[in-house]
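Recap from last week: sequence in, structure out.
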Amino acid sequence: MTSGLPRRFLDLLTRPRVAGAAWWSVVSRLPVYLMSLALVLTVREQGGSYAQAGLVAALYTLGMALGSPLIARHLDRRGRAAVLTATAVAYPVALAVLVWFTHPGGWAQPAAAVVAGAVLPPANACMRSLWARLPLREEERETAYLWEALLTEVLVIGAPLMLAALMLVGSAGLALTTVAVVGGLGTLGLARTRLPAGTEAAEDSAGADAAGGSGGSGGSGGESAEGSAGAAVAARQGTRHLLGPLREPALLALTGVMALSAVPIGLLTLAIPAFVDRHGAPGGAGLVYACWGVGSALGALWLGRAQSRVAPQVRFPRLLLAYALGTGLTLLAGSQVGLALALAVGSAPIALVSASEMTLVSAIADGRSLAEAFTWASLATVLGDALGQQAGGLLMDPLGPRAVFAVATGTALAAAGLAFACRGLLTRRAVPVVEYAA
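Predicted structure tokens:
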């Protein structure tokens, strides 16, 4: 019997043939959480303007949005080793070309940014789909997705600090290249790690299950075999549909909820420094941001222990409502310290929302398209965040940060309402992907 959430994490992350993939995935994901900042710093270091730096970072994100679903689809179809190995080589090469062989103002640098974003290794999608396929008990799988959510918060805080440390001993371009190479090595490690038997046979087993049952008794056996074979072909064709897993209404609804719930994050990203600046301490914005991330991480550790006792489709809208109420605490802040406290307390459910979302994706998505399903869920969050930042920029000057806090709170409440409205749809599909008897 484990004692406490840290012990559950330790038991899971030190398990033979699980530990290797889990820890290599951490290394492979380092570039994800600092590359936009690193690109801006590199372009500025090369003499480019902020407008040029912003364009390169935006095009990198655009390339990621366009390329990641296609790469994830190949990951589902061709397996982990081939896709991760190819992107582990292509990604650092593309970024090295951008840093060392292009310059601001030309066409080559924006083009290299698009290519680099498009070939970003799908480490997030790969590891989250592996958690769904690994032979784990359901409470262990809940712990795995909570770890994923907590890891995101840690990397959001820690990866930029690592970039800053690298820049103390070298240039921004050298730091960017180093992180890209380290991420590529981590991806190679994830590609070559051995996993428990049967973990990566989801497609084969799904096809076998679809073709099974053909040995029925009597004269219906041939018809049953023919019908099952047709169903298997139809299922395989379904995975090749343009929309892929988004053809499933429950997954489409879930990604819509996640996109809407990410908009307040983008709004707050703009409103926090503006609020701190208006209260006379512009240098304190970094500390306030840190309180936001630390509050989410501590919330996962404090509240995560009880998550598996409530069905994910039930707790998901409840957590979104708690997240909306927590966002509303920013309206009560009257100083930098007050805002830091409001964010630290109000952010407690954020990582838990993310963990519940991952659990629902693994339950809803077809086992043959898990990586692509997780990719669409992540993209929904990225796009919602970007929309929130754009809206925050437009609203800030005419309305001010407090009004943006109010818009963020209203949007979060709308996301919670949508989640409650979709709960029945999620309930019909929320079933465990893999069960494992210890």
